[in-house]
Protein backbone atom coordinates (compact mmCIF):
# COMPACT_ATOMS: atom_id res chain seq x y z
CA UNK A 1 0.00 0.00 0.00
CA UNK A 2 1.63 3.24 -1.14
CA UNK A 3 0.57 6.37 0.65
CA UNK A 4 -0.09 8.93 -2.07
CA UNK A 5 -1.12 11.75 0.20
CA UNK A 6 -2.80 12.09 3.54
CA UNK A 7 -6.23 11.36 2.11
CA UNK A 8 -5.75 8.51 -0.34
CA UNK A 9 -3.58 5.44 -0.56
CA UNK A 10 -2.63 3.78 -3.83
CA UNK A 11 -2.60 0.04 -4.01
CA UNK A 12 -2.56 -2.77 -6.51
CA UNK A 13 -5.72 -4.85 -6.58
CA UNK A 14 -6.83 -7.84 -8.62
CA UNK A 15 -9.71 -6.76 -10.81
CA UNK A 16 -11.91 -9.65 -11.94
CA UNK A 17 -14.16 -8.68 -14.83
CA UNK A 18 -16.21 -10.69 -17.33
CA UNK A 19 -14.14 -13.82 -16.78
CA UNK A 20 -10.69 -12.24 -16.85
CA UNK A 21 -8.37 -10.86 -14.20
CA UNK A 22 -5.80 -8.07 -14.22
CA UNK A 23 -3.68 -6.14 -11.76
CA UNK A 24 -4.86 -2.61 -11.45
CA UNK A 25 -3.88 0.42 -9.41
CA UNK A 26 -6.69 1.76 -7.23
CA UNK A 27 -7.01 4.56 -4.73
CA UNK A 28 -8.65 3.96 -1.37
CA UNK A 29 -9.67 6.69 1.02
CA UNK A 30 -7.55 7.12 4.15
CA UNK A 31 -9.08 6.11 7.47
CA UNK A 32 -7.50 7.04 10.78
CA UNK A 33 -8.34 6.62 14.42
CA UNK A 34 -8.36 10.13 15.87
CA UNK A 35 -8.17 10.39 19.65
CA UNK A 36 -10.03 13.27 21.19
CA UNK A 37 -8.77 14.50 24.57
CA UNK A 38 -11.07 16.93 26.37
CA UNK A 39 -9.42 18.80 29.25
CA UNK A 40 -6.72 16.15 29.31
CA UNK A 41 -9.01 13.12 29.35
CA UNK A 42 -9.34 10.83 26.36
CA UNK A 43 -13.00 10.92 25.51
CA UNK A 44 -13.60 9.26 22.17
CA UNK A 45 -11.79 7.85 19.21
CA UNK A 46 -13.26 8.84 15.89
CA UNK A 47 -12.66 6.69 12.82
CA UNK A 48 -12.42 9.36 10.18
CA UNK A 49 -10.80 10.81 7.11
CA UNK A 50 -7.88 12.80 8.55
CA UNK A 51 -8.86 16.12 6.99
CA UNK A 52 -10.60 19.18 8.50
CA UNK A 53 -9.91 17.65 11.90
CA UNK A 54 -10.49 20.79 13.97
CA UNK A 55 -13.88 21.13 12.28
CA UNK A 56 -14.68 17.46 12.91
CA UNK A 57 -13.85 17.69 16.59
CA UNK A 58 -15.64 21.00 17.08
CA UNK A 59 -18.70 19.71 15.24
CA UNK A 60 -18.64 16.49 17.22
CA UNK A 61 -18.59 18.37 20.54
CA UNK A 62 -21.39 20.59 19.27
CA UNK A 63 -23.48 17.65 18.05
CA UNK A 64 -22.96 15.98 21.41
CA UNK A 65 -24.22 19.14 23.16
CA UNK A 66 -20.91 19.60 24.99
CA UNK A 67 -20.39 23.05 23.46
CA UNK A 68 -22.79 25.50 21.87
CA UNK A 69 -20.45 28.15 20.47
CA UNK A 70 -16.84 28.79 19.57
CA UNK A 71 -16.05 30.64 22.81
CA UNK A 72 -16.73 27.44 24.74
CA UNK A 73 -13.44 26.14 23.33
CA UNK A 74 -10.34 27.82 24.76
CA UNK A 75 -7.81 25.86 22.78
CA UNK A 76 -7.76 23.13 20.18
CA UNK A 77 -4.51 21.48 19.20
CA UNK A 78 -3.98 18.73 16.65
CA UNK A 79 -0.97 16.46 16.89
CA UNK A 80 -0.62 14.75 13.49
CA UNK A 81 2.07 12.33 14.66
CA UNK A 82 -0.15 10.92 17.41
CA UNK A 83 -3.39 11.52 15.46
CA UNK A 84 -4.72 13.13 18.62
CA UNK A 85 -6.58 16.35 19.27
CA UNK A 86 -6.41 18.14 22.62
CA UNK A 87 -9.35 20.39 23.40
CA UNK A 88 -9.48 22.68 26.41
CA UNK A 89 -12.96 23.94 27.25
CA UNK A 90 -13.97 27.16 28.94
CA UNK A 91 -14.12 26.75 32.70
CA UNK A 92 -17.90 26.77 33.02
CA UNK A 93 -18.39 24.02 30.42
CA UNK A 94 -18.86 20.54 31.81
CA UNK A 95 -17.50 17.98 29.36
CA UNK A 96 -20.04 15.43 30.50
CA UNK A 97 -20.80 12.65 28.10
CA UNK A 98 -23.64 10.38 28.95
CA UNK A 99 -21.84 7.17 29.76
CA UNK A 100 -24.78 5.41 31.27
CA UNK A 101 -27.07 5.17 28.26
CA UNK A 102 -24.80 5.12 25.32
CA UNK A 103 -25.77 6.02 21.80
CA UNK A 104 -24.41 3.71 19.20
CA UNK A 105 -24.07 6.21 16.46
CA UNK A 106 -23.34 9.85 16.98
CA UNK A 107 -26.01 11.69 18.88
CA UNK A 108 -26.23 14.03 21.77
CA UNK A 109 -24.06 12.22 24.25
CA UNK A 110 -25.68 13.88 27.18
CA UNK A 111 -28.71 11.87 26.33
CA UNK A 112 -30.96 14.79 25.62
CA UNK A 113 -31.28 14.75 21.89
CA UNK A 114 -30.11 11.30 21.07
CA UNK A 115 -32.28 9.54 23.54
CA UNK A 116 -35.20 11.47 22.21
CA UNK A 117 -33.98 11.51 18.63
CA UNK A 118 -37.53 10.67 17.64
CA UNK A 119 -38.92 13.10 20.18
CA UNK A 120 -38.64 16.62 18.93
CA UNK A 121 -39.41 18.42 22.17
CA UNK A 122 -35.76 19.21 22.81
CA UNK A 123 -35.53 21.44 19.73
CA UNK A 124 -37.38 24.57 18.75
CA UNK A 125 -39.11 24.17 15.40
CA UNK A 126 -37.76 26.18 12.49
CA UNK A 127 -39.82 29.30 11.85
CA UNK A 128 -38.12 30.54 8.66
CA UNK A 129 -40.35 31.58 5.79
CA UNK A 130 -37.57 31.32 3.22
CA UNK A 131 -38.37 29.72 -0.10
CA UNK A 132 -36.17 27.94 -2.59
CA UNK A 133 -36.37 27.41 -6.34
CA UNK A 134 -36.49 23.79 -7.51
CA UNK A 135 -33.60 24.50 -9.86
CA UNK A 136 -31.46 25.62 -6.91
CA UNK A 137 -31.88 22.22 -5.26
CA UNK A 138 -30.78 20.51 -8.46
CA UNK A 139 -27.84 22.88 -8.98
CA UNK A 140 -26.59 22.66 -5.40
CA UNK A 141 -26.58 18.88 -5.35
CA UNK A 142 -24.68 18.86 -8.65
CA UNK A 143 -22.15 21.32 -7.21
CA UNK A 144 -21.67 19.20 -4.09
CA UNK A 145 -21.04 16.09 -6.12
CA UNK A 146 -18.57 17.91 -8.39
CA UNK A 147 -16.67 19.21 -5.39
CA UNK A 148 -15.79 15.79 -4.08
CA UNK A 149 -12.72 14.69 -6.02
CA UNK A 150 -12.18 12.17 -3.24
CA UNK A 151 -15.45 10.45 -4.09
CA UNK A 152 -14.47 10.26 -7.75
CA UNK A 153 -11.08 8.81 -6.81
CA UNK A 154 -12.13 6.34 -4.16
CA UNK A 155 -15.92 5.90 -4.12
CA UNK A 156 -15.52 5.63 -0.38
CA UNK A 157 -16.64 8.93 1.08
CA UNK A 158 -19.72 10.90 1.96
CA UNK A 159 -19.87 14.64 1.45
CA UNK A 160 -21.73 17.35 3.32
CA UNK A 161 -22.00 21.09 2.81
CA UNK A 162 -23.68 24.22 4.01
CA UNK A 163 -25.27 26.43 1.37
CA UNK A 164 -27.02 29.77 1.52
CA UNK A 165 -29.04 30.94 -1.48
CA UNK A 166 -27.33 29.18 -4.38
CA UNK A 167 -23.83 29.16 -2.96
CA UNK A 168 -21.94 26.41 -1.15
CA UNK A 169 -20.07 28.11 1.70
CA UNK A 170 -18.19 25.09 2.97
CA UNK A 171 -18.03 21.40 2.20
CA UNK A 172 -16.41 18.37 3.75
CA UNK A 173 -15.75 14.72 2.95
CA UNK A 174 -15.48 11.85 5.34
CA UNK A 175 -15.69 8.08 5.42
CA UNK A 176 -18.82 8.41 7.58
CA UNK A 177 -21.92 10.45 6.85
CA UNK A 178 -22.13 11.58 10.50
CA UNK A 179 -18.55 12.84 10.45
CA UNK A 180 -19.06 14.78 7.21
CA UNK A 181 -22.05 16.62 8.72
CA UNK A 182 -20.13 17.22 11.96
CA UNK A 183 -17.32 18.86 9.96
CA UNK A 184 -19.84 21.27 8.45
CA UNK A 185 -21.32 22.07 11.86
CA UNK A 186 -17.79 22.51 13.22
CA UNK A 187 -16.95 25.00 10.50
CA UNK A 188 -20.10 26.99 11.28
CA UNK A 189 -19.18 27.08 14.98
CA UNK A 190 -15.54 27.96 14.37
CA UNK A 191 -16.42 30.76 11.97
CA UNK A 192 -19.23 32.06 14.21
CA UNK A 193 -21.71 31.80 11.35
CA UNK A 194 -24.21 29.57 12.99
CA UNK A 195 -26.91 32.11 13.67
CA UNK A 196 -26.11 34.79 11.14
CA UNK A 197 -26.42 32.96 7.89
CA UNK A 198 -28.03 29.63 8.56
CA UNK A 199 -30.89 30.30 10.94
CA UNK A 200 -33.28 31.40 8.24
CA UNK A 201 -32.00 30.25 4.93
CA UNK A 202 -29.40 27.63 5.65
CA UNK A 203 -29.36 24.46 3.63
CA UNK A 204 -27.57 21.38 4.86
CA UNK A 205 -26.56 19.17 1.94
CA UNK A 206 -25.42 15.62 2.50
CA UNK A 207 -24.86 12.62 0.26
CA UNK A 208 -25.77 10.20 3.05
CA UNK A 209 -29.03 8.52 3.90
CA UNK A 210 -31.39 10.64 5.96
CA UNK A 211 -31.94 8.99 9.32
CA UNK A 212 -33.37 10.73 12.37
CA UNK A 213 -29.86 11.37 13.63
CA UNK A 214 -28.98 13.47 10.60
CA UNK A 215 -32.19 15.48 11.08
CA UNK A 216 -31.15 15.96 14.70
CA UNK A 217 -27.83 17.41 13.52
CA UNK A 218 -29.63 19.67 11.03
CA UNK A 219 -31.88 20.87 13.86
CA UNK A 220 -28.87 21.45 16.10
CA UNK A 221 -27.42 23.65 13.32
CA UNK A 222 -30.77 25.45 12.89
CA UNK A 223 -30.99 24.53 9.21
CA UNK A 224 -34.22 25.16 7.33
CA UNK A 225 -33.50 22.73 4.49
CA UNK A 226 -31.94 19.27 4.56
CA UNK A 227 -31.17 17.85 1.12
CA UNK A 228 -29.74 14.51 0.00
CA UNK A 229 -29.61 12.24 -3.07
CA UNK A 230 -30.35 9.34 -0.71
CA UNK A 231 -33.51 8.04 0.94
CA UNK A 232 -35.02 9.16 4.24
CA UNK A 233 -36.28 6.89 7.02
CA UNK A 234 -39.65 7.20 8.71
CA UNK A 235 -37.93 8.66 11.76
CA UNK A 236 -36.29 11.36 9.68
CA UNK A 237 -39.59 12.32 8.06
CA UNK A 238 -41.40 12.43 11.39
CA UNK A 239 -38.73 14.48 13.13
CA UNK A 240 -38.33 16.90 10.21
CA UNK A 241 -42.08 17.39 10.15
CA UNK A 242 -42.24 18.08 13.89
CA UNK A 243 -39.34 20.52 13.64
CA UNK A 244 -40.68 22.21 10.49
CA UNK A 245 -37.55 21.40 8.52
CA UNK A 246 -37.98 20.99 4.76
CA UNK A 247 -36.68 17.49 4.07
CA UNK A 248 -35.64 16.72 0.48
CA UNK A 249 -34.51 13.25 -0.58
CA UNK A 250 -33.63 11.42 -3.79
CA UNK A 251 -32.19 14.65 -5.22
CA UNK A 252 -30.66 13.03 -8.29
CA UNK A 253 -30.16 14.63 -11.68
CA UNK A 254 -33.22 16.69 -12.56
CA UNK A 255 -35.54 15.44 -9.83
CA UNK A 256 -36.11 15.30 -6.07
CA UNK A 257 -38.81 14.44 -3.52
CA UNK A 258 -39.98 16.86 -0.84
CA UNK A 259 -41.11 14.94 2.23
CA UNK A 260 -41.99 17.75 4.63
CA UNK A 261 -42.82 21.44 4.57
CA UNK A 262 -42.99 21.56 0.80
CA UNK A 263 -44.51 25.06 0.88
CA UNK A 264 -40.95 26.38 1.02
CA UNK A 265 -40.20 24.94 -2.43
CA UNK A 266 -41.59 27.24 -5.12
CA UNK A 267 -43.91 25.55 -7.58
CA UNK A 268 -42.59 25.48 -11.13
CA UNK B 1 -47.89 9.23 7.12
CA UNK B 2 -49.74 5.93 6.79
CA UNK B 3 -48.15 2.93 8.42
CA UNK B 4 -48.32 0.16 5.85
CA UNK B 5 -46.61 -2.49 7.91
CA UNK B 6 -43.97 -2.58 10.58
CA UNK B 7 -41.16 -2.01 8.12
CA UNK B 8 -42.40 0.63 5.71
CA UNK B 9 -44.55 3.71 5.91
CA UNK B 10 -46.48 5.12 2.98
CA UNK B 11 -46.60 8.84 2.53
CA UNK B 12 -47.43 11.44 -0.07
CA UNK B 13 -44.47 13.48 -1.25
CA UNK B 14 -44.07 16.28 -3.75
CA UNK B 15 -41.99 14.98 -6.64
CA UNK B 16 -40.26 17.76 -8.60
CA UNK B 17 -39.01 16.53 -11.95
CA UNK B 18 -37.84 18.32 -15.10
CA UNK B 19 -39.67 21.52 -14.20
CA UNK B 20 -42.96 19.97 -13.10
CA UNK B 21 -44.34 18.83 -9.76
CA UNK B 22 -46.77 16.08 -8.78
CA UNK B 23 -48.03 14.39 -5.65
CA UNK B 24 -46.75 10.87 -5.42
CA UNK B 25 -47.02 8.03 -2.96
CA UNK B 26 -43.68 6.82 -1.64
CA UNK B 27 -42.59 4.21 0.86
CA UNK B 28 -40.01 5.05 3.49
CA UNK B 29 -38.26 2.52 5.67
CA UNK B 30 -39.34 2.37 9.32
CA UNK B 31 -36.87 3.61 11.91
CA UNK B 32 -37.35 2.96 15.62
CA UNK B 33 -35.44 3.63 18.79
CA UNK B 34 -34.94 0.24 20.42
CA UNK B 35 -33.97 0.28 24.11
CA UNK B 36 -31.69 -2.50 25.22
CA UNK B 37 -31.83 -3.44 28.90
CA UNK B 38 -29.07 -5.76 30.10
CA UNK B 39 -29.74 -7.38 33.48
CA UNK B 40 -32.33 -4.70 34.17
CA UNK B 41 -30.17 -1.69 33.26
CA UNK B 42 -30.80 0.35 30.14
CA UNK B 43 -27.57 0.15 28.23
CA UNK B 44 -28.03 1.53 24.74
CA UNK B 45 -30.68 2.72 22.38
CA UNK B 46 -30.28 1.48 18.86
CA UNK B 47 -31.82 3.38 15.97
CA UNK B 48 -32.82 0.53 13.73
CA UNK B 49 -35.28 -1.14 11.42
CA UNK B 50 -37.60 -2.98 13.84
CA UNK B 51 -37.09 -6.42 12.31
CA UNK B 52 -34.94 -9.36 13.44
CA UNK B 53 -34.57 -7.57 16.77
CA UNK B 54 -33.36 -10.55 18.79
CA UNK B 55 -30.64 -11.06 16.18
CA UNK B 56 -29.73 -7.37 16.27
CA UNK B 57 -29.40 -7.30 20.03
CA UNK B 58 -27.50 -10.60 20.19
CA UNK B 59 -25.16 -9.48 17.41
CA UNK B 60 -24.65 -6.11 19.05
CA UNK B 61 -23.67 -7.72 22.36
CA UNK B 62 -21.36 -10.09 20.48
CA UNK B 63 -19.77 -7.26 18.46
CA UNK B 64 -19.27 -5.33 21.69
CA UNK B 65 -17.50 -8.36 23.20
CA UNK B 66 -20.08 -8.63 25.99
CA UNK B 67 -21.00 -12.19 24.96
CA UNK B 68 -19.18 -14.78 22.90
CA UNK B 69 -21.80 -17.50 22.49
CA UNK B 70 -25.50 -18.14 22.78
CA UNK B 71 -25.25 -19.75 26.24
CA UNK B 72 -24.05 -16.42 27.62
CA UNK B 73 -27.62 -15.19 27.19
CA UNK B 74 -30.11 -16.71 29.63
CA UNK B 75 -33.16 -14.88 28.35
CA UNK B 76 -34.03 -12.37 25.70
CA UNK B 77 -37.44 -10.76 25.63
CA UNK B 78 -38.76 -8.21 23.17
CA UNK B 79 -41.59 -5.89 24.15
CA UNK B 80 -42.99 -4.46 20.90
CA UNK B 81 -45.22 -1.90 22.63
CA UNK B 82 -42.29 -0.31 24.46
CA UNK B 83 -39.79 -1.11 21.69
CA UNK B 84 -37.54 -2.48 24.39
CA UNK B 85 -35.52 -5.66 24.70
CA UNK B 86 -34.63 -7.19 28.05
CA UNK B 87 -31.57 -9.42 28.07
CA UNK B 88 -30.50 -11.47 31.05
CA UNK B 89 -26.92 -12.68 30.88
CA UNK B 90 -25.41 -15.79 32.43
CA UNK B 91 -24.10 -15.10 35.92
CA UNK B 92 -20.42 -15.13 35.07
CA UNK B 93 -20.79 -12.60 32.25
CA UNK B 94 -19.95 -9.03 33.17
CA UNK B 95 -22.02 -6.66 31.06
CA UNK B 96 -19.28 -4.04 31.17
CA UNK B 97 -19.32 -1.48 28.44
CA UNK B 98 -16.37 0.82 28.21
CA UNK B 99 -17.85 4.11 29.27
CA UNK B 100 -14.62 5.93 29.68
CA UNK B 101 -13.38 5.92 26.11
CA UNK B 102 -16.44 5.78 24.01
CA UNK B 103 -16.60 4.61 20.45
CA UNK B 104 -18.72 6.74 18.22
CA UNK B 105 -19.86 4.01 15.94
CA UNK B 106 -20.33 0.42 16.94
CA UNK B 107 -17.19 -1.27 18.11
CA UNK B 108 -16.08 -3.41 20.93
CA UNK B 109 -17.44 -1.43 23.83
CA UNK B 110 -14.96 -2.87 26.23
CA UNK B 111 -12.38 -0.97 24.35
CA UNK B 112 -10.40 -3.93 23.19
CA UNK B 113 -11.24 -4.17 19.56
CA UNK B 114 -12.63 -0.76 18.88
CA UNK B 115 -9.83 1.14 20.44
CA UNK B 116 -7.45 -0.90 18.41
CA UNK B 117 -9.70 -1.20 15.41
CA UNK B 118 -6.63 -0.51 13.30
CA UNK B 119 -4.51 -2.75 15.47
CA UNK B 120 -5.10 -6.34 14.60
CA UNK B 121 -3.34 -7.90 17.58
CA UNK B 122 -6.62 -8.62 19.37
CA UNK B 123 -7.74 -11.05 16.67
CA UNK B 124 -6.26 -14.28 15.43
CA UNK B 125 -5.61 -14.16 11.67
CA UNK B 126 -7.76 -16.37 9.49
CA UNK B 127 -5.97 -19.55 8.49
CA UNK B 128 -8.54 -21.02 6.09
CA UNK B 129 -7.29 -22.29 2.78
CA UNK B 130 -10.70 -22.20 1.14
CA UNK B 131 -10.98 -20.89 -2.38
CA UNK B 132 -13.85 -19.26 -4.21
CA UNK B 133 -14.83 -19.05 -7.86
CA UNK B 134 -15.11 -15.52 -9.30
CA UNK B 135 -18.58 -16.39 -10.59
CA UNK B 136 -19.70 -17.24 -7.04
CA UNK B 137 -18.83 -13.72 -5.87
CA UNK B 138 -20.89 -12.25 -8.70
CA UNK B 139 -23.81 -14.62 -8.13
CA UNK B 140 -23.91 -14.12 -4.35
CA UNK B 141 -23.95 -10.34 -4.60
CA UNK B 142 -26.77 -10.56 -7.15
CA UNK B 143 -28.71 -12.88 -4.83
CA UNK B 144 -28.23 -10.51 -1.88
CA UNK B 145 -29.50 -7.56 -3.84
CA UNK B 146 -32.51 -9.51 -5.11
CA UNK B 147 -33.38 -10.56 -1.59
CA UNK B 148 -33.89 -7.04 -0.34
CA UNK B 149 -37.40 -6.06 -1.33
CA UNK B 150 -37.11 -3.32 1.28
CA UNK B 151 -34.29 -1.70 -0.67
CA UNK B 152 -36.34 -1.80 -3.84
CA UNK B 153 -39.29 -0.24 -2.02
CA UNK B 154 -37.51 2.42 -0.03
CA UNK B 155 -33.91 2.83 -1.20
CA UNK B 156 -33.14 3.38 2.46
CA UNK B 157 -31.58 0.19 3.78
CA UNK B 158 -28.36 -1.73 3.82
CA UNK B 159 -28.33 -5.51 3.59
CA UNK B 160 -25.94 -8.08 4.99
CA UNK B 161 -25.80 -11.85 4.72
CA UNK B 162 -23.80 -14.91 5.59
CA UNK B 163 -23.07 -17.34 2.78
CA UNK B 164 -21.32 -20.67 2.63
CA UNK B 165 -20.27 -22.09 -0.74
CA UNK B 166 -22.82 -20.54 -3.12
CA UNK B 167 -25.73 -20.37 -0.69
CA UNK B 168 -27.00 -17.47 1.38
CA UNK B 169 -27.88 -18.92 4.79
CA UNK B 170 -29.33 -15.78 6.34
CA UNK B 171 -29.75 -12.16 5.37
CA UNK B 172 -30.87 -9.00 7.12
CA UNK B 173 -31.80 -5.42 6.27
CA UNK B 174 -31.34 -2.36 8.41
CA UNK B 175 -31.17 1.39 8.11
CA UNK B 176 -27.52 1.20 9.23
CA UNK B 177 -24.77 -0.92 7.76
CA UNK B 178 -23.44 -1.77 11.24
CA UNK B 179 -26.85 -2.99 12.38
CA UNK B 180 -27.32 -5.19 9.30
CA UNK B 181 -24.01 -6.94 9.97
CA UNK B 182 -24.83 -7.26 13.68
CA UNK B 183 -28.09 -9.01 12.76
CA UNK B 184 -26.13 -11.56 10.75
CA UNK B 185 -23.68 -12.12 13.61
CA UNK B 186 -26.61 -12.41 16.00
CA UNK B 187 -28.21 -15.09 13.87
CA UNK B 188 -24.96 -17.06 13.80
CA UNK B 189 -24.70 -16.85 17.58
CA UNK B 190 -28.34 -17.75 18.20
CA UNK B 191 -28.19 -20.72 15.86
CA UNK B 192 -24.80 -21.86 17.23
CA UNK B 193 -23.37 -21.87 13.74
CA UNK B 194 -20.49 -19.56 14.37
CA UNK B 195 -17.69 -22.07 14.36
CA UNK B 196 -19.21 -24.92 12.44
CA UNK B 197 -19.91 -23.35 9.10
CA UNK B 198 -18.22 -20.01 8.99
CA UNK B 199 -14.76 -20.51 10.42
CA UNK B 200 -13.27 -21.86 7.25
CA UNK B 201 -15.50 -20.95 4.39
CA UNK B 202 -17.81 -18.24 5.69
CA UNK B 203 -18.51 -15.24 3.52
CA UNK B 204 -19.87 -12.05 4.99
CA UNK B 205 -21.75 -10.06 2.36
CA UNK B 206 -22.69 -6.46 2.96
CA UNK B 207 -23.96 -3.65 0.76
CA UNK B 208 -22.28 -1.01 2.94
CA UNK B 209 -18.93 0.67 2.63
CA UNK B 210 -16.02 -1.30 4.02
CA UNK B 211 -14.50 0.60 6.93
CA UNK B 212 -12.17 -0.92 9.51
CA UNK B 213 -15.13 -1.42 11.84
CA UNK B 214 -16.86 -3.74 9.38
CA UNK B 215 -13.64 -5.73 9.02
CA UNK B 216 -13.52 -5.93 12.83
CA UNK B 217 -17.02 -7.42 12.82
CA UNK B 218 -16.03 -9.90 10.08
CA UNK B 219 -13.02 -10.91 12.18
CA UNK B 220 -15.20 -11.27 15.27
CA UNK B 221 -17.41 -13.66 13.25
CA UNK B 222 -14.31 -15.52 11.94
CA UNK B 223 -15.24 -14.89 8.32
CA UNK B 224 -12.73 -15.70 5.61
CA UNK B 225 -14.30 -13.50 2.93
CA UNK B 226 -15.82 -10.02 3.21
CA UNK B 227 -17.63 -8.87 0.06
CA UNK B 228 -19.37 -5.61 -0.82
CA UNK B 229 -20.45 -3.59 -3.87
CA UNK B 230 -19.07 -0.52 -2.07
CA UNK B 231 -15.58 0.86 -1.57
CA UNK B 232 -13.11 -0.01 1.18
CA UNK B 233 -11.09 2.45 3.26
CA UNK B 234 -7.34 2.23 3.85
CA UNK B 235 -8.04 1.05 7.40
CA UNK B 236 -10.21 -1.79 6.14
CA UNK B 237 -7.54 -2.92 3.67
CA UNK B 238 -4.80 -2.79 6.28
CA UNK B 239 -6.79 -4.67 8.90
CA UNK B 240 -8.03 -7.30 6.43
CA UNK B 241 -4.47 -7.83 5.28
CA UNK B 242 -3.17 -8.23 8.84
CA UNK B 243 -5.98 -10.66 9.66
CA UNK B 244 -5.64 -12.61 6.41
CA UNK B 245 -9.24 -11.90 5.42
CA UNK B 246 -9.98 -11.79 1.69
CA UNK B 247 -11.47 -8.33 1.15
CA UNK B 248 -13.56 -7.84 -1.98
CA UNK B 249 -15.01 -4.45 -2.91
CA UNK B 250 -16.84 -2.87 -5.84
CA UNK B 251 -18.62 -6.19 -6.51
CA UNK B 252 -21.03 -4.80 -9.08
CA UNK B 253 -22.52 -6.65 -12.01
CA UNK B 254 -19.83 -8.80 -13.63
CA UNK B 255 -16.82 -7.37 -11.82
CA UNK B 256 -15.13 -6.95 -8.45
CA UNK B 257 -11.81 -5.93 -6.92
CA UNK B 258 -9.83 -8.14 -4.56
CA UNK B 259 -7.85 -6.00 -2.13
CA UNK B 260 -6.23 -8.62 0.09
CA UNK B 261 -5.43 -12.34 0.07
CA UNK B 262 -6.40 -12.73 -3.55
CA UNK B 263 -4.90 -16.24 -3.67
CA UNK B 264 -8.24 -17.49 -2.34
CA UNK B 265 -10.02 -16.32 -5.51
CA UNK B 266 -9.47 -18.84 -8.30
CA UNK B 267 -8.03 -17.38 -11.48
CA UNK B 268 -10.37 -17.57 -14.46
3D architecture notes:
2 copies of one chain form a homodimer. The model of chain A is unreliable at 98-117 (pLDDT under 50). In chain A, a hairpin with a 4-residue loop joins β6 and β7. A 6-stranded mixed sheet of chain A has the order 10-9-11-12-13-14, with helices on both faces. Chain A has 7 helices and 14 strands. Helices cover 25% and strands 32% of the residues of chain A. The termini of chain A are far apart. Chain A has helices spanning 53-63, 134-147, 149-154, 177-190, 198-201, 212-220, 234-242; strands at 2-3, 8-17, 20-29, 32-38, 41-48, 73-79, 84-89, 102-103, 158-164, 167-174, 202-206, 225-227, 246-252, 255-258. Chain A has 3 domains: 1-29, no CATH class; 32-119, Ubiquitin-like (UB roll), CATH 3.10.20.10; 134-264, Cytidine Deaminase, domain 2 (3-Layer(aba) Sandwich). With 268 residues, chain A is α+β, with helices and mostly antiparallel strands. In chain A, α1 crosses α4 and α6 packs parallel to α7 (234-242). At the A-B interface, β2, β3, β5, β8 and α7 of A face β2, β3, β5, β8 and α7 of B. β14 of chain A pairs antiparallel with β2 (8-17) of chain B, so a sheet runs across the interface.
Largest interface: A-B, 75 and 75 residues
CATH topology of the largest domain in chain A: Cytidine Deaminase, domain 2
Helix content of chain A: 25-40%
Spatial sequence of strands, sheet with the most strands of chain A:
10-9-11-12-13-14
N→C terminal distance of chain A: 51 Å
Number of strand segments of chain A: 14
List keywords for this structure.
25% helix, Cytidine Deaminase, domain 2, alpha+beta, 7 helices, homodimer, four-stranded mixed β-sheet, 3 domains
Amino acid sequence: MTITNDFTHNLIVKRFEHGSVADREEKVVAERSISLFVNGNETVRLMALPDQIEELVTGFLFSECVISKNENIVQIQFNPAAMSVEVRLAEHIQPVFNDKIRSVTTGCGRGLTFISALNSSFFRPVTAETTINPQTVIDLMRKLQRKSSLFHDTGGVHSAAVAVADEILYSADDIGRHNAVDKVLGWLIRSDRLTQETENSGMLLTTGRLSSEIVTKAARGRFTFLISPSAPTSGAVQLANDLAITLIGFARGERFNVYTRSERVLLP
